[in-house]
Amino acid sequence: MYREEDYLQLSGIQHFAFCRRQWALIHVEQQWEENFHTADGRLMHENAHNSEFREKRGNIIIIRGMRVSSAEYGISGECDVVELHRDDQKGININGLEGNYIVKPIEYKRGTLKSSDCDYVQLCAQVLCLEEMLCCDIKEGCLYYGQPKKRTVVLMSETLRAKTKQLLGEMHELYKRKYTPKVHSNKSCNSCSLKNICVPEIEKRSALTYIHDMINERSDL
Ligand code: SF4
């Protein structure tokens, strides 16, 4: 069990799965640079969180901006949306509500379904928190992508759970060591919001050659 002061930001797992160096620059060194993708994503999240309230639509209760945490995995954060689907047979009782409910988190994402599992592990980390807080089993959640506006159901398989727990363990390990991994440039670097801070080009040249090249490039202007 982690102490509350050692909790890491839940949403950081998507950065960690994308690139461990990016995660360390944001969460260990507290550097952040906004680009179109992050600004657009932030606006979409603000819309999902626009009023922290409960709404009832038929048999579904919708909770926006729900705070979640897990002492077992040492994380805390917010779920964009948590839906409670009334199901008196298979659901669980939730304090203050009549009947039983199946719990389903929905995470909003800009863009299209990605081939990497960054969004999946973030959703799974939310599920781990909700299961611990509500003492329940959650079989699936959803990712809602902006293009096209569509939900994708994500099953909480043992493989996905194992991967998520492994990443969370590694995050705590790096955070404890305050370690920022070295650059390993890859195709993700093109869309990375921290490209200008990370400077992945430096991997291919020595620091001295890089500075020389920068000076020469500027004197050619
Ligand atoms: S530019 Fe590349 S190596 Fe650097 S933080 Fe971004 S993804 Fe990682």
Q: Averaging pLDDT over every residue, what do you get?
A: 86
Provide the number of structural domains: 2
Largest sheet: 8 strands, mixed
The CATH topology of the largest domain is Lambda Exonuclease, Chain A
Distance between the termini: 57 Å
CATH architecture designation of the largest domain: Alpha-Beta Complex
What is the rounded Rg? 20 Å
Number of continuous helical runs: 7
Percentage of β-strand residues = 15-25%
| Alpha-beta content class | alpha+beta
Query: Which CATH class of the largest domain applies here?
Result: Alpha Beta
What sequence of helices (H) and strands (E) makes up the elements?
EHHHEEEEEHEEHHH
The kinds of small molecule bound in this structure are: iron/sulfur cluster
State the helical fraction.
25-40%
**Number of β-strand runs:** 8
The shape, in one word, is elongated
Low-confidence stretches: none
